[in-house]
Design a protein that fits this description.
Strand content: 5-15%
Structural class: alpha/beta
Largest sheet: 6 strands, mixed
Number of strands: 6
Number of helices: 9
Oligomer: single chain
Radius of gyration: 28 Å
Strand order of the largest sheet: 1-3-2-4-6-5
Length: 235
């Protein structure tokens, strides 16, 4: 009964307005629309970052306590990767050394300390980027990873890159560069020039361990990094 009475009252009110010559009612204004849009964008960004973390964890779970190649026999820890799952910039190295094997984190030894300085010189922190390697177990005596080891481990790196979708990937040294770009050309010829790989800009440059042995090459490396800084600013 109350609904019927309310409807009759509304009808009488509308008839009165029509008698007064009113033919259109003003629409209520939306308030704080920009804030709502901004909040929605923030929620979406947070959701995407969370999704990337979930994807990376799924890849890590798939890797498991890996025994797919002979490198597993001598390792202490699998060195999966570290950093921001939603990073715009990714660094890809060759493989873990002694310090990385002990800690289970990439680039924590002397070369890692230099890489950290390189990242900071770019105006970033280690936590702003993502760092991974071609192989996830330490080769004996830090030798060069063998082709079968690279072939076995490479798919997991590819999945990591696909999960993160960085704007730029910096490949450190010959192995990382040649593996990702599928080329036999050396880093001396490739460094300093962007290559596109699956919609991602790849910048090859020198490995920090090489720079420790050849300090005179730090300047060319810095020139490479400056190109990445500029690209990220513009994109």
């Amino acid at each position: 009964m109350e609904k019927k009475a309310a409807a009759q009252q509304l009808r009488r009110r509308l008839e009165d307005l029509i008698d007064q010559g009113v033919t259109e009612l003003p629409r209520p204004r939306r308030k704080h629309a920009p804030a709502a849009v901004s909040e929605a964008t923030a929620i979406k960004a947070k959701s995407e970052a969370g999704d990337n973390a979930v994807k990376l964890q799924a890849i890590r779970n798939e890797l498991g306590d890996c025994t797919r190649c002979k490198l597993s026999k001598g390792r202490t820890n699998i060195v999966f990767g570290v950093g921001d799952p939603n990073a715009k910039l990714m660094f890809i190295g060759e493989g873990p050394g002694r310090d990385e094997d002990l800690k289970g984190e990439p680039f924590v030894g002397r070369a890692g300390q230099l890489l950290t300085k390189m990242i900071e010189a770019m105006g970033l922190k280690r936590s702003d980027v993502y760092i991974a390697n071609i192989v996830k177990c330490r080769p004996p005596d830090n030798r060069y990873p063998e082709p079968d080891e690279v072939e076995t481990c490479q798919p997991f790196l590819m999945k990591q890159i696909a999960a993160i979708r960085p704007k730029v990937a910096i490949t450190l040294g010959n192995l990382a560069t040649q593996t990702l770009l599928q080329t036999k050309t050396g880093i001396t010829a490739l460094h300093g020039t962007f290559r596109e790989w699956n919609g991602i800009q790849v910048m090859p440059t020198y490995h920090p361990a090489f720079l420790l042995r050849n300090p005179n090459m730090k300047k060319p490396c810095w020139e490479d990094l400056k190109k990445v800084i500029q690209y990220l600013k513009e994109n």
